[in-house]
Amino acid sequence: MHAVWRQKKLVLGCALLTGVLGAGYAFLAPKTYEVSSVLRPAAINELDALNRSEVYKLPPADALAKVGAQLDSYEARLGFFRSHEQLFTAFQKPGQSLEQSFEDFNRNSVNLILPDPKKSDSLSSYIRLELQYPADVDGVAILNGFVDYAIASEREQVGADLKVIVNNRLNELKGKIDAARANYETEKESKIAKLLEDDRLKRARLQDELSALRLQMKMERTNRLAELAEAISIAKSMGIKTPTTPSSMADATRSGSSQVMRTEVNNQQIPLYFLGTEALEAERTALQQRTSDDFTNPRIAQIGKELQLLEANREVEVLRKRGNEDIFLQDVEPLRAEVARLRNLNIDMSNLKLVTVDRRAQEPLAPIKPKKAIILAVSLIAGLVIGTLIALIRHLISSRNQPVPYSSLEDGRFARRERKDDEPAA
């Protein structure tokens, strides 16, 4: 310490020299400034229209996360760099491509700070974006412009996502309505086919019944003719020409002039030949001249009526002549209401506020680099240390080169040992 103190001018000179060098660097080195912008979640009412659409759910925290991802996106930063090249002229170095200059800027100048995920307090949700830039760069315009660019890009992305989701939902609803329409068409054709098939079956049964009835009546007429022929032959053999009864024939064989009126009660059918040949032959002639027996059975007329009604199925005609068949579709009213709601969905994406810019970048009051006070203090301390080291080294070197003095006062034993060594020589 005595040696250093004796060389205090040297130590102070070194400290002064390093201080001057540090001051020169502090005042002449390029200045670096820093600006920052802070984003926080938007208010709930800002995203209410989007969330109430029941198509796209975007809570404020998710919106902030999406904007943060956009701010941290390499593609978004490169897009802003390309679209605002005039702001990044100072970062473009000769011999470097645009992408290389951007890579250097993106790696060294932009820093995204997120809150500590261990903190559960919702008040700590924020995104902080910092930018460091030299003195000849408009860092405020760069940072604020990039924040606005990222928010606008994310807003466009949300609008595009919403449009795609709405279109997909409309296509899905259209597919369901088309499926319901196809199902209706199938059911209608099936119903028409079933109605026509039932008509054909009824028509065939009625025609079979009509043919059977006509055959039956023809056989009955043939049988009647046979009965009449037999009855005519009997009536001729008995000489009965006009209708009579068995009792009348018995009275005719009796004589007498008295006129008697009789009432005959008989539960047995009178044989046909009692009608007489005249009536029987007249009936036979009529039956032989008959061309159709349809009028004799009322069922024939009923069958004809039913066949006439089956010529045209009015229900089938009504089904085929439906104009607007969509009104007959089943369970599509909610789908149509949803389609109308989605088509009338009008969300103004240009005014959609995804995040709140809590603090925009402002012109800094002072540069963050170089830190003059720290540089001066460090340079002075470094000068003192260097001067001290030099003083110590000089002291050690000078002490080694000087002879050792004899001093009995400092060391009596050393002085006596020197005298004993000198005695033989004397």
From TrEMBL:
<dbReference type="InterPro" id="IPR032807">
    <property type="entry name" value="GNVR"/>
</dbReference>
<dbReference type="Pfam" id="PF13807">
    <property type="entry name" value="GNVR"/>
</dbReference>
<feature type="domain" description="Tyrosine-protein kinase G-rich">
    <location>
        <begin position="357"/>
        <end position="395"/>
    </location>
</feature>
<protein>
    <submittedName>
        <fullName>LPS O-antigen chain length determinant protein, WzzB/FepE family</fullName>
    </submittedName>
</protein>
<feature type="transmembrane region" description="Helical">
    <location>
        <begin position="373"/>
        <end position="393"/>
    </location>
</feature>
<keyword id="KW-0812">Transmembrane</keyword>
<feature type="coiled-coil region">
    <location>
        <begin position="163"/>
        <end position="223"/>
    </location>
</feature>
<keyword id="KW-0175">Coiled coil</keyword>
<keyword id="KW-1133">Transmembrane helix</keyword>
<feature type="region of interest" description="Disordered">
    <location>
        <begin position="240"/>
        <end position="259"/>
    </location>
</feature>
<keyword id="KW-0472">Membrane</keyword>
<feature type="domain" description="Polysaccharide chain length determinant N-terminal">
    <location>
        <begin position="3"/>
        <end position="58"/>
    </location>
</feature>
<dbReference type="InterPro" id="IPR003856">
    <property type="entry name" value="LPS_length_determ_N"/>
</dbReference>
<feature type="compositionally biased region" description="Polar residues">
    <location>
        <begin position="242"/>
        <end position="259"/>
    </location>
</feature>
<keyword id="KW-1003">Cell membrane</keyword>
<dbReference type="InterPro" id="IPR050445">
    <property type="entry name" value="Bact_polysacc_biosynth/exp"/>
</dbReference>
<dbReference type="Pfam" id="PF02706">
    <property type="entry name" value="Wzz"/>
</dbReference>
